[in-house]
Design a protein that fits this description.
Mean pLDDT: 90
Low-confidence stretches: none
CATH architecture: Sandwich
Strand content: 25-35%
Largest sheet: 5 strands, antiparallel
Structural class: mainly beta
Order of helices and strands: HEEEEEEEEEEEE
Number of domains: 1
Helix content: under 10%
Shape: elongated
CATH class: Mainly Beta
Oligomer: single chain
Number of strands: 12
Number of helices: 1
């Protein structure tokens, strides 16, 4: 009889303490965002040394050699702060691997933020050998030019030489 009482009490406690299950349903949504670029950069002109004579260095000036100096155009939020980081080659190469020395100096780049007079009278000189911090112009544009020098040896192999010059631009958030 004691067992029957324990069994009835256990059954009663279980029934009373078990919550009633209601019908449940759920639905999921996504959190969405589209990041739009606050900055656009375009390489608009190659640094072009043209025909080079063996044994004779050739310099392209960022300001005076219009159409030959390398050029990038940037657009973005007016006055946004950014860093400019050049990755410069130490040589140009042919498809077969022949190399010709190319060099860049501390004043071989310049920029115009709209407050200067374009390539021949830029707003500022840049040092392409270091990371520089600058601002996009008040009009939302910035143009950058680069010159340099090739130094062919007297026995330089003929052919077409090339190398990449990379300008990495990063918004600082300031």
């Amino acid at each position: 009889m004691k067992r029957l009482v324990v069994l009835i009490v256990t059954l009663a406690v279980t029934l009373v303490s078990t919550p009633q299950t209601q019908a449940q349903e759920s639905a999921t949504i996504q959190a969405l965002a589209t990041v739009v670029s606050a900055l656009t950069i375009t390489g608009t002109n190659n640094l072009n040394f043209g025909n080079v004579t063996p044994g004779t260095p050739k310099l392209i000036d960022k300001q005076t050699d219009v159409g030959l100096a390398g050029e990038w155009t940037l657009s973005g939020n007016p006055t946004a702060e950014l860093t400019l980081d050049f990755t410069l080659p130490d040589s140009l190469r042919t498809a077969s691997g022949s190399a010709m020395v190319v060099s860049f100096g501390i004043t071989d780049a310049s920029l115009d933020d709209g407050s200067g007079g374009g390539q021949t009278a830029p707003s500022s000189i840049l040092n392409p050998l270091i990371v520089e911090t600058r601002n996009i112009g008040a009009g939302g544009a910035l143009t950058i030019w680069i010159g340099g020098q090739v130094s062919p040896t007297p026995a330089q192999t003929g052919g077409a030489y090339a190398a990449d010059i990379i300008l990495t631009v990063t918004l600082t958030g300031n």
